[in-house]
Amino acid sequence: MKRVLLSSMILLAIIMNSKAQNQVLELKKCNDVAGSRIVSDNLGNIYVLAKSSLMKYDAEGNFQCSYTELKDGLITNIDVSDPLKIIIFNADFGKIKFLDNKLSLKKDPVSLSDLGYNNASLVATSYDNGFWLFDPLSNQLVRFDVNLQMTQQSGNISDLIGHEFKPDFMVEYNNMVYLNDPLYGIFVFDRYGTYMKTIPVKNIPAFQIFSDRIFYLDKNILKSLDLKTYEEKTVQLPPFGEDIISATTGTHQISVLSKTKFCIYKYL
């Protein structure tokens, strides 16, 4: 625990001493759409989540397709790490669905109750067509392969880190799993579910990992943290006229979402 605490203190010192970067943004396009979260994939496509619907736009902001299924309740989690196999999660019904690049179902949904995890709160794509879930009852990460066979378990994470653990967001990147606990930071696990370290960035609702950087929104500032050096960069977002509730980045551009619209800005 002393080694982990010292590591976290060093990371925090690096983050606090990082300097802001001056970036100039130019408005590219706005779309009138109600949503709660915006994400982008590695091909530049943009996705807007709105209750039980997911809408897809291309990098220019042109509408492509959508998916809606009202009977399964709200979509609580989406993962577009693989744009050809998108995961959506309906936590209230414990269902995982896999969509193709046209947002059509690729196969039958997975019922987590059939796997013994009725109360799973988070789901994320994993390597080799598997997926991770977080089970708040056993307080652990669990991985299933493409054949729905359990392959890894982390063990009780609270016991591992020495305090209560309540993650609200999860993603896998380069075979590492990142779980966000707003109170303590971003917890990093390897592909076997072994706890590695904590990145002390706190009180963020969600994040995106792109080009080896963690991106997250802090009011009207988009911040990013290098995963290797922990250098922080910031981008001041243009006046938006409404509260910004989500933002995502891609190659040479940023997309910003409010409750009534999303806009794309390009770097100059």
Describe this structure in words.
The chain has 268 residues and is mainly beta. Helices cover 7% and strands 45% of the residues. It is built from two helices and 24 strands. It has helices at residues 2-16, 157-161; strands at residues 25-32, 37-40, 46-50, 53-57, 63-68, 77-79, 86-90, 95-99, 110-111, 122-126, 130-135, 140-144, 150-153, 169-173, 176-181, 185-189, 195-199, 208-210, 213-218, 221-226, 232-236, 246-250, 253-257, 261-267. A four-stranded antiparallel sheet has the order 1-24-23-22, with no helix packed on it. It has a four-stranded antiparallel sheet with strand order 2-3-4-5, with no helix packed on it. The longest helix has 15 residues, at 2-16. The model is unreliable at 1-20 (pLDDT under 50).
Q: Report the span from N to C terminus.
A: 45 Å
Shape: globular
Helix content: under 10%
Order of helices and strands: HEEEEEEEEEEEEEHEEEEEEEEEEE
Structural class: mainly beta
Number of helices: 2
Strand content: over 45%
Query: Kindly state the mean pLDDT as a whole number?
Result: 90
Write out the strand line-up for the largest beta sheet, numbering strands in chain order.
Answer: 1-24-23-22
Radius of gyration: 18 Å
List low-pLDDT spans. 1-20
Secondary structure tally: strands: 24
**What can be said about the biggest beta sheet?**
4 strands, antiparallel
